[in-house]
Automatic annotation (TrEMBL):
InterPro entries, per database record: DapB_C, DapB_N, DapB_N_CS, DHDPR_bac, NAD(P)-bd_dom_sf
Active site, per annotation: H155, K159
PROSITE patterns found in the cross-reference section: DAPB
Protein name according to UniProt: 4-hydroxy-tetrahydrodipicolinate reductase
């Protein structure tokens, strides 16, 4: 499977490149960097700190190399991801996108694209996070509004969006399990006199240092509580999951896919 990685020097792009280079079922054909970066024109293996040449270029024009790939993996910025999406649709290429922070209108463009290309969107490509999502759905269906649900998510100081895309996805799963929409029941932080409303989902975002990613969902009942938590030690699990998602799309037709499909959850 021929793969293009967007942002090969970025936090996720670098790791995805490293993982893809190890796999026998993948062939890296290009890395695409933002225009003007000093490493454009260099070998992808050196740019992604693999420590050896791959014989693969880093370019700053996706359109120039897109026809040589089967799938694009993009964990870049919100603005750039929308440009990548448009090119993927135009050239009929499968796309794995793990970028977060889109508005509802922007996210709708990904679902529209799925009518013509294999489109896999994943706010979080970790296997264990997606298993956690299944547990959250089960607990919420069992408890309903008998539990007060609160989400605490922690990330590094450089994360731009809050709450995290992963925690939003968790909230949507639990809201749907209660037959509701997250937008109707989400409460973001509290200050002053702010009594809890039954049936809501509370959000709390912490940003500090180089904390990788941590999500805890609290189910509070009278006299007891349940906590379900996922911690990452580094971003390797997301990179491996992203490559698994790309491999999953190899023989797929147009459609909107998820990590749950990849894991058969």
């Amino acid at each position: 499977m021929k793969v293009i990685v967007i942002g090969p020097r970025g936090k996720m792009g670098k790791l995805i490149t490293q993982v893809a280079a190890e796999r026998d079922d993948m062939e890296l054909v290009a890395g695409v960097a933002p225009a003007g970066r000093d490493y454009v024109g260099q070998d992808l293996g050196m740019v992604a700190l693999i420590g050896r040449n791959l014989g693969v270029p880093v370019v700053d024009d996706l359109a120039a190399v897109i026809d040589g790939c089967d799938v694009i993996i993009d964990f870049s910025t919100r603005e750039n991801a929308l440009k990548v999406l448009d090119l993927a649709v135009k050239h009929g290429k499968a796309l794995v996108c793990g970028t977060t922070g889109f508005s509802e209108e922007e996210f709708a463009r990904f679902k529209e694209a799925a009518k013509t290309i294999p489109m896999l969107y994943a706010a979080n490509t970790s296997k264990l996070v997606n298993i956690m999502n299944k547990l959250l759905e089960m607990v919420t269906k069992t408890l309903g509004e008998d539990a007060d649900i609160e989400i605490l998510e922690m990330h590094d100081q450089w994360k731009k969006d809050a709450p995290s895309g992963t925690s939003k996805e968790m909230g949507e799963i639990m809201a749907h399990a209660m037959g509701k929409e997250l937008s109707d029941i989400a409460v973001y932080g509290r200050e002053g006199e702010s009594p809890r409303e039954k049936g809501t989902i509370g959000y709390h975002s912490l940003r500090a240092g180089n904390i990788p990613s941590s999500h805890t969902v609290f189910f509070g009942c009278m006299g007891e509580r349940l906590e379900i938590t996922h911690h990452t030690y580094n971003w390797e699990c997301f990179a491996r999951g992203a490559c698994d998602c790309a491999a999953y799309l190899e023989d797929k037709g147009p459609g909107f896919y998820s990590v749950q499909d990849v894991l058969n959850l």
